[in-house]
Amino acid sequence: MKRILTMAPLLLLSSLSFAQSQNTWDGFVTDTHCGTNCQRSSDMKPDRACVRLCVRKGSKYGLWYGNHVYELEPQAQAAKFAAENVRVTGEMANDTIRIGSIALITK
After folding, report:
1. Overall pTM surpassing 0.85 (yes/no)
2. CA 12 – CA 7 distance, rounded (Å)
3. What is the DSSP letter of 74?
4. Which domain holds residue 45?
5. Alpha carbon 14 to its chain's center
6. Which is it for the CA torsion 58, 81, 35, 24, positive or negative?
7. Would 98 be classed as within a structural domain?
8. CB atoms within 10 A of CB 85
9. Alpha-carbon distances of 13 from 16, 19, 50, 93, 101, rounded to whole Å
10. pLDDT, tens digit (0-9, with 9 covering 90-100), for 50-90
């Protein structure tokens, strides 16, 4: 019982640090090769065919946020949203966002 009580603060602290590392980003799903340069429309959103073609050729799905493209993981989850405006919640490490959740932004 004493061991459980001494570990309780450590478990609480580790769960708080996990919760604090979750962030949210709004942006377009594009690819890491073309990044912000694959727009073919006047509304400045990525072109779905271009994004998918680049990924088939070896690029990775990424989130265009601000003036930077961050790689998204897992790729299979990001693929469902190619060229879409999304809200991603997750963790970032080394310019890669680990997706906790991803959803379309509708206006």
Report:
1. no
2. 9
3. S
4. 22-104
5. 23
6. negative
7. yes
8. 16
9. 5, 10, 45, 20, 23
10. 899 999 999 999 999 988 999 999 999 999 999 999 999 99
